[in-house]
Amino acid sequence: MLYIQSSSGELVPLDTIATISKTIGPLTVNHLQQLPAVNISFNLRPGVSLGDAIAIVDELAPSILPPGVSKQFQGTAQAFQSSFSGLLILLALAVFVIYLVLGVLYESYIHPVTILSGLPSAGFGALVTLMLFGSELNIYGFVGIIMLIGIVKKNAIMMIDFALEAERVEGKSPVDAIYEGALVRFRPIMMTTMAALMGTLPIALGLGAGGEARQPLGLAVVGGLLTSQLLTLYITPVVYYYMDKLLRMVRSRKGVPVAAAADAAD
Length: 266
Description:
By secondary structure, the chain is mainly alpha-helical. It has helices at 50-64, 76-106, 111-116, 119-132, 139-170, 174-184, 186-204, 211-253, 258-265; strands spanning 3-5, 11-13, 31-32, 35-36.
């Protein structure tokens, strides 16, 4: 009783080109973005993080799924991917904004790079600490790394601020200025770092109600502070010297006297 239209425009009974038979089929067909879709759920074994499970699914899906079938994560896995992509952008924006603020503060494009030179060591220490304690890099751990950006750069700010003042006011050479800055500011650097360590140590130990969930944050901060404290005291003066040397070289090529450039910076 059903007719379809042929290429010539005439109506043709459907039973002339097809055979109707009764069989078992799905009661409903789920759709995602107007395409038929099937939901496949999975649970995590103890000790396996959601990020590792997503990586395994991404690796096995192309070899298992037939051609023409694509995959898309939903639920918790999708929220995990979207949150981490947003956190990476947030981390990049945080570094960029801090660079702009430091550039305006010191009226220089070079010295903000010197101050931010200690961030890689802090990030390395945070990641190694999380790996050593078997903790995953979740949202709390990422927040801890973002916190490190604000905590670690204060070491370099203390030294570089003193060194710049010694160069401009007392006329000292870059080497003598940053050396004296490292000696004079050593005590406040250690005091502020120890205060931050003692403040985040209970979080790193997982103390308190719900402490296990926040433990990656404390581990990232403690590990990053310890590593950066050991390295930035040696790295920052070296980076400052070579950056200042590069700045003087650029100014000399432009024909700007070093003394005049320093007076203009004041």
